[in-house]
Specification:
Elements lengths: L1 H20 L26 H26 L7 H4 L21
Length: 105
């Protein structure tokens, strides 16, 4: 289940990047090559309503998958190595070694 959610999450991220960067309706965007030029004040945004709704749905699904990944990630199944092997404090500091007494002749 986790793998499916993360696959959908990555796919939605790619789709959002493409839909926002490529299909935005500003000057010089990719839609202007398909006949969408001119000033926005005098042109009606006819083809952009679908793209706006599609991007909004993808953003909503991206938020849902983000929440699901957070919930699954906090479960006990996904534990960190540091949780399994905690750092143990030394029982007692070793006393500094005393120099050996000089040998008598």
């Amino acid at each position: 289940m986790y793998t499916l959610i993360i696959s959908v999450h990555v796919a939605l991220a790619i789709i959002l990047i493409i839909s926002i960067l490529v299909f935005q309706t500003s000057k010089g965007s990719a839609l202007s090559m398909f006949g969408g030029g001119g000033d926005a004040l005098f042109n009606a945004a006819s083809g952009t309503t679908f793209i706006k709704k599609f991007t909004a749905v993808c953003a909503g699904l991206f938020a849902v998958t983000s929440l699901l990944l957070t919930i699954y990630g906090s479960s006990n199944r996904f534990r960190s190595v540091t949780q399994e092997y905690p750092l143990q404090a030394p029982a007692q500091q070793a006393a500094p070694a005393q120099p050996a007494a000089p040998a008598k002749k």
